[in-house]
Amino acid sequence: NPKFMKKECAPCCESCEELDFKRRCPIDRDVPSIWGPGDLNKMFERITTDSYYVEKFQPTIYSKPPEGPWIVTLENVASAEQCEAMIEAAGARGYVRSKDVGSQKYDGTFDSIESLDRTSSNAWCLEECYKLPEHQTVLKVVENITGIPDANSEYWQMLRYDEGQFYRRHHDYIPFHHERAQGMRILTVFLYLNDVEEGGGTRFTDLDITVEPRRGRALLWPSVLDSDSSLRDHRTHHEAMPVIRGVKYGANGWYHERDFKTPYASGCS
Length: 269
Fold this sequence. Notes:
This protein is of the alpha+beta class. Helices cover 26% and strands 25% of the residues. The strands form 4 sheets. It has an 8-stranded antiparallel sheet, with helices on one face. Strand 1 and strand 2 form a beta hairpin. Helix 4 crosses helix 5 and helix 6 packs across helix 8.
């Protein structure tokens, strides 16, 4: 693997320039964000007022401007069969302990670290999971809802929370993405894949809003401001409440300002 060797054995391969992330992964600053000023609001207004989306997905508005950020749920984004297929595909890939972003490494990438604030397990929906027909159908539904192409999405993170597991207060905005070609995470689409016997809600800690899990329900919220998609909206800190009884399955879809999958394929995300 020449690309691997050039980076991991740079002195021997006389390729030390490969250790410079900015040189290895240049950013085209002329590529615009998918959202300009006002586009965030336009998307949420469309899915909560347009008759097609209202009838098909039965939106519930938990928060909206000017009082607060947009927090909206949509029902029936995925069918029971699609949810089950995604759970099975994630199980086949294997769940491992969820991790948070750690410190920066010598080559400009970042470590992943286990945290006492996050006790769930996850599997990344790559390869055969990504190609799963049921998952592809859900991705197309979400693309229609958001107007954001799938290329701008990270591969979905499939989650499992057993009884007592949780993820404490956090934010989906990651500052170092300013220096990545894909730009910032602008929108989270969290899909609940099953009904939970008790607990497991998503709580927006600064707004005192809790959304309960329901199979096929998608919860949408922005990580950024409507006026500037590169700036964090500090109001959308949230936490996964502990599961009291049963197990919770879900899926995180994180959508970026620009194409994510191309830089990911090059090790530049």
